[in-house]
Amino acid sequence: MSIDKNQVKKVAKLSRISLDDSKLDSLSKDLDSILNFVKELNKVDTNKIKPLSSIVDKKLEPRVDKINDGQIKKEILKNSPDKNEDFFIVPKVVE
Amino acid sequence: MSDFNKKSLSEFVNLIKSKKTSSLEITNHFINNIKQSKKLNSFITTCFDQAIKSAKEFDSKKNSSGLLAGVPLAIKDLFCTKNIRTTAGSKILENFIPTYESTVTNNLWSEGAILLGKLNCDEFAMGSSNETSYFGNTINPVGKDLVPGGSSGGSASALAANLTPATIGTDTGGSIRQPASFTGTVGLKPTYGLCSRWGIVAFASSLDQAGPMTKNVEDCALLLEAMSGYDEKDSTSINKKKENYSTNLNEKIKGLKIGIPKEYRIENMPQEIDNLWKKGIDILKKSGAKIVDISLPHTKYALPTYYIVAPAEASSNLARYDGVKYGYRSKKGKNLIEMYENTRGEGFGDEVKRRVLIGTYVLSSGYYDAYYLKAQRVRQLIKNDFDQCFKEVDAILTPSTPSSAFKIGEKTNDPISMYLNDIFTVPVNLAGIPAISIPAGHDKKGYPLGLQLISRALNEQKILNIALAMEKNISFKQSLDRWWE
After folding, report:
1. What share of chain A is helix, strand, coil (3-state, %, to 5)?
2. Do A44 and B381 touch (CB under 8 A)?
3. Segment among A75-79, B178-182, B197-201, B393-397 with least mean pLDDT
4. Residue B2 banded pLDDT, cuts 50, 70, 90
5. Cα separation of A55 and B207, whole Å?
6. Is A56 in contact with B193 (Cβ distance < 8 A)?
C-alpha cells in the first residue's frame, strides 16, 4: 500500500481541498492504485541521468524593464466573486 | 446547403476569396447545423449574434485577405476569449469572462477567422473521454453511446459532425490526437514552443501545446500556419521565422526513412490495430519510403512518468483557483482557509481532485526525490530514445490509440484503464516533439482508427508531407447519417 486514508486527508489539507468523508474510501483506493502504477519507474536505472525539467533548449531572455500594461484595475477586479472599491474581499483573517 | 457539409476549410477559404460565397452564408450554415446538434452536447457556449455581425462586417470589406478569410470557427473552451465566457469545462470557471484574448486565437482572428462558439472538453483538459466535463459529456457523432475521446472531445465531435469547418484543441498527453483518431479526423500536436501558450488555461505547462484539428491534411497545414508563431508573452515560445506549411505541402516522400518502433507492439493489442499499422507500412513502402525497424526502449515508462510530471505541474497551476481573484467561491467556511478548502472541494470535479492530490503528494517533502525527480530523470531517457532514433530515421509510424472509441461509462470507474488510452501519444509530449494522427481505417464495428506520424522538433512540414502522401493512398471515407438532428 502506497498511501492510506490518513495520508490522503493530509495531502487534501496541503492541497486546500475539502473532502467528502463518504468518498474517502474510493478516493484512497484510486490514489493508491495510481501511485502503485507509477512505481514502475523504480525499475529504471537513472543513476547518471540529470532530471529534465524543460524541453525547450533556451535560456530565459532578458527584456527591458518597462511598464507595458498598467491602468487595468477594472479588468483585474472584474471577475472577482467579492470586491469593494479597489479591493478583493476575503473572510476575516485577523481577530 | 447540404453541399457545404462536404467542403473542407481550404475550400471555404477559396470560395470566400473568389467571392463565390459570402462569409455570412457559410456562417449561417454552421449556425443552423449547431442549432440541430443539441444531442451531441459539443458546445458549452455559442456566440451566434457576434458571429453574424463579424461575418457581415467581413463581407462589407473590399479586401478579403488572410489565411482564414471570413471562415467561422468553433474552438476548445480552454482558450481565453475576450468578453466571451471561458470555462475549461469546470464549475470553478463557470462564470469566468476573460478580459483578454489568447495569442493563438488572436492569430486566428488576425487571419480573418470568426468565432462561432466554445467547445466542450474534459475539466482542465484532464481526461481521455470528455466525461470529466462539468457541462456533461460530449457524444461522438460516430455512435450514440460512444465517447469522442478527450480532452479535446467537443472539438473532435463538432468537427466530425460538421458543426465547424475546422477547430483547435490542446494536447498535453494525447488530447488532440486521441479524439481525432476516435472521430475519423486529423489532429496535430506541434513541437513544444511552436504555438504560444499565453492565454490558454494551464494544465501541465511543460507539456501543453495547442494544435489544429481538421478534416484533412491540407487544412491541417493551413490552420497550423495561421495559429503558430513566436510570442514574447510565452517564455517558452520558440523565436524563429514563421513557416509556410500550406504552400510547402507536397507528397514527395520517396527515399525517406520511416521507423517502426517494436515497443509499440503492446500485449493484447487488437489484431485490427496491428493490421492497420501494417497497411500504413505498405502504403509508405509503395510511396517509395524506406521502412526501418527501430527501438524506443523506455516507451513503457512514458505513462508512469507522465502521471507524475503532469499532476505535479497541475497541482501548482491549479493553486490559483482560490475563490478570491476570479472564479467560483463557496459560501461555506468560518475563515479564509475553510473558504479555500470548500471553494476547491465544491468547484473541482473528481478527476481534477485526484490529479491535484497526486501532484501535491509527489511534490511533498520526503517524496519529491523518489517520485518527481525520478520521473524527470526517466523523461530525459525517453527524450534520448527519440534523439537516438532520429539520427537514423526521418519519422516514426505508430498506431494513434490502442483501441477505437469506447462506450460512455465503460472506463469511468478505473482511472488506470482510462490512462492507458494515451499509451502511444504520451511519449511525444514528454519529448516535446511533433506528431500527427490521420484517419486510416475502420474496425469491424465500423468505428474509425488512426495512425500517428512522429518526427523531430520543428519538423512539422515533414510529417504533414508524409501524412498527405498516406492520405491520398488510404482514401478514408466517413459518412455519418446525422442521427443527432
Report:
1. 40, 5, 55
2. yes
3. A75-79
4. low
5. 9
6. yes
> Does residue B213 contact residue B153 with C-beta atoms inside 8 Å?
no
Q: So what's the ipTM on this one?
A: 0.95
DSSP letter for each residue of A37-67: HHGGGGGS--TTPPP---SS--PPPP-----
- Residue ranges of the alpha helices (H) in B287-335? 302-317
A and B: number of Cβ contacts within 8 A: 165
CB neighbour class for A41 (10 Å; exposed up to 12, middle 13-18, buried from 19): buried
Beta-carbon count within 10 A of B473 CB = 14
CB distance A11–B307 less than 8 Å?
no
pLDDT digits (tens, 9 = 90+) for B48-89: 999 999 999 999 998 888 999 999 999 999 999 999 999 999
Distance from CA of B173 to the nearest CA of A (A): 15
C-alpha cell, B312: 505535479
Looking at domain B2-257+392-474, which CATH architecture does it have? Answer: Alpha-Beta Complex (3.90)
Distances (CA, A) of A26 to B113, B311, B470: 46, 19, 46
Cα(B28)–Cα(B59) distance, integer angstroms: 13
| A33-B410-B176 Cα angle (round to 5) | 85
Which set of grid coordinates corresponds to residue B50?
A: 457576434
Contacts of B324 in chain A (CB under 8 A): 80-81, 88, 90
